[in-house]
Write a structure and sequence with these properties.
The complex is a heterodimer of chains A (111) and B (412). Chain A is of the alpha+beta class. Chain A has one domain. In chain A, 28% of the residues lie in helices and 31% in strands. In chain A, the strands form 2 sheets. A 5-stranded antiparallel beta sheet of chain A has the order 2-1-3-6-7. The longest helix of chain A has 15 residues. Chain B is 67% helix and 1% strand. A two-stranded antiparallel sheet of chain B has the order 1-2. In chain B, α1 runs antiparallel to α3. Chain B is globular. The chains are: A alpha+beta (111), B mainly alpha (412). Chains A and B meet through α2 and α3 of A and α6, α12 and α13 of B.
Chain lengths: 111, 412
């Protein structure tokens, strides 16, 4: 895990998942929502990235039951950190994947 | 074939392998990368889009040298010594007569650490298992060892939270028994099995880390060895009627091997860590930026102020990177030159505590398992230091001529 080399000005990736409800509200899906912890959230985010329908649907179902909402889409984002010898700060967010849930297939046109 | 001829044959094979791997193999790797070699070789290179040919050439160099070194390490003893000599050396190394006290101390420290982690640390407590129990079934990929435990219920059986809770408390009770040495052997077996089961379950959802592995192996070693023969309620109950117990002097030929095995595993684990860093990152791993990157990444996630401060110190990051690689890559020297334990272990404790404070990773288990090196500390300077500080009396000097005295070798 710590074996790769990195260089100055390289951004530190941070995966985030945004859930979009049927009322067009957006909310972050947090690691507490997935259960398990940070690493299981990473597994979920990677499942989303690779459109692993089974894992995504299972997590969404649990999320919907817990928060009493209906999700229609998910958006996977990279919210990287930029660092130097003085400070670390947030860099520009990049959308990695838009995933429509009702079709249960990845869809680039979802907002 | 005589042993002499076999040695010459091995030498010639080694030279031939070096010539083949440096002169001919790179051309084959290049043509396989270009898709112009045999189909079976072309298929071995699967990520052309992600990696350049240099990546595969570097992998080949590492793999070929590793293959050569492993072959020589395995075959050389067979060619240099007779089977009887090898057997005797094996027995002398692993099954030397050693005091049971070191093994018992190791049991107490290892079991106490595992118990404290289980009962007090969030990452190993019941709340974590409650979190894992709600993870969806599609994420559940049981590790082979968990499948073995759950064999009667089918290969993909998943224990419920109620079952996990039961096993958790059973393990904790067995751990208390193992700590105090009450019914030591069965307690240690149940504690080792329970800890393995719970850890295997925790790692059956896709993420896998290595900090618990050495502890789990150690618990099984303790269960298989006479670690409860002294410093235990069992030994107290068995010998309380005996006027002269002398438990400090009790020895066994089975008392050294678990400690030696853990010491050797530490050497392997750290060497592997150093080689992985060098093979994946190369010399750039010690550029300072790499460590700063990891410190920023982990410290910002875990909210470690110390980690964020350290991440800003480029020079310190360079120095720490070098220290880490050199320390990990040469840790096995402790097994060859035991006095080095006085340098390597304090450095190791410093590095592990530093990593924990910086929010990178906490290796409490590793620090506790350093107790396997207590015999080295004691026999290579510790006893002398204790005498010097007046904590221990010097051994009685006999008037026997030197030639008639029994040679006392360090036990472990």
């Amino acid at each position: 895990m710590y074996s790769s080399a990195h260089f100055a000005k390289e951004e530190i990736p941070r995966l985030a998942v945004v859930g979009i409800t049927d009322k067009s509200q957006e909310m972050d899906v947090l690691s507490e929502d997935v259960g398990g912890g940070y690493w299981h959230f990473q597994i979920f985010a990677n499942a989303l990235k690779h459109s692993n329908k089974e894992v995504v649907q299972d997590v969404v179902r649990a999320y919907e039951a817990r928060h009493k909402v209906r999700l229609v889409a998910l958006r996977l984002e990279n919210r990287p950190l930029r660092w130097n010898n003085v400070e670390v700060q947030a860099a520009t967010t990049e959308v990695l994947q838009n995933y429509r849930l009702d079709a249960a297939e990845p869809n680039e046109r979802v907002p | 074939m005589t042993r002499r001829q076999a040695q010459i044959a091995l030498l010639l094979c080694g030279v031939a392998w070096i010539l083949l791997s440096t002169l001919i193999a790179p051309g084959i790797v290049q043509s396989a990368y270009d898709g112009k070699s045999y189909e079976i070789l072309n298929r071995l290179i699967s990520s052309r889009a992600e990696h350049s040919v240099d990546f595969y050439l570097r992998k080949w160099v590492i793999a070929s040298w590793m293959a050569l070194i492993v072959t020589i390490v395995v075959l050389l003893p067979v060619l240099l010594f007779t089977p009887k000599q090898l057997f005797n050396a094996w027995r002398r190394y692993w099954f030397r007569l050693a005091p049971l006290i070191y093994l018992a101390l190791f049991r107490i420290i290892a079991v106490a650490t595992q118990l404290i982690l289980m009962l007090l640390e969030r990452d190993y407590g019941l709340r974590r298992f409650a979190g894992l129990a709600v993870l969806p079934g599609s994420m559940y990929k049981p590790l082979p060892i968990l499948q073995v435990f759950l064999l009667p219920f089918g290969p993909s059986a998943r224990p419920s939270f109620a079952v996990l809770t039961l096993i958790y408390w059973l393990t904790a009770v067995a751990g208390i028994g193992a700590l105090f040495g009450l019914k030591s052997r069965p307690s240690l077996f149940i504690f080792a099995a329970g800890s393995t089961f719970l850890q295997a379950f925790a790692y059956s959802f896709g993420d896998l880390h290595h900090r618990e592995a050495l502890m789990v192996i150690t618990l099984w070693l303790l269960a298989l060895s006479p670690s409860g023969r002294v410093l235990s309620l069992d030994s107290y109950l068995a010998t309380r009627e005996t006027p002269n117990r002398k438990w400090l002097q009790r020895k066994s030929i089975f008392a050294a091997w678990p400690l030696l095995l853990v010491q050797n595993l530490f050497g392997l684990v750290y060497l592997d860590a150093a080689l992985r860093k060098l093979s994946a990152g190369g010399a750039a791993w010690v550029n300072g930026d790499t460590l700063q990157y990891y410190l920023y990444k982990d410290a910002s996630r875990r909210g470690s102020e110390f980690g964020l401060w350290l991440a800003r110190q480029h020079t310190a990051a360079c120095v720490l990177s070098w220290v880490t690689i050199l320390w990990e890559g040469t840790f096995f020297f402790v097994l060859i030159f035991p006095r080095l334990v006085w340098i390597y272990l304090p450095v190791g404790i410093g590095l592990h505590i530093g990593m924990a404070l910086a929010g990178v990773a906490t290796f409490s288990q590793f620090m506790a398992l350093y107790a396997a090196f207590i015999p080295l500390f004691w026999n290579y300077g510790g006893r002398w230091l204790a005498v010097k500080c007046g904590l221990l009396r010097e051994p009685v000097r006999t008037k026997l001529p030197v030639a008639d005295r029994r040679v006392e070798q360090p036990v472990i």
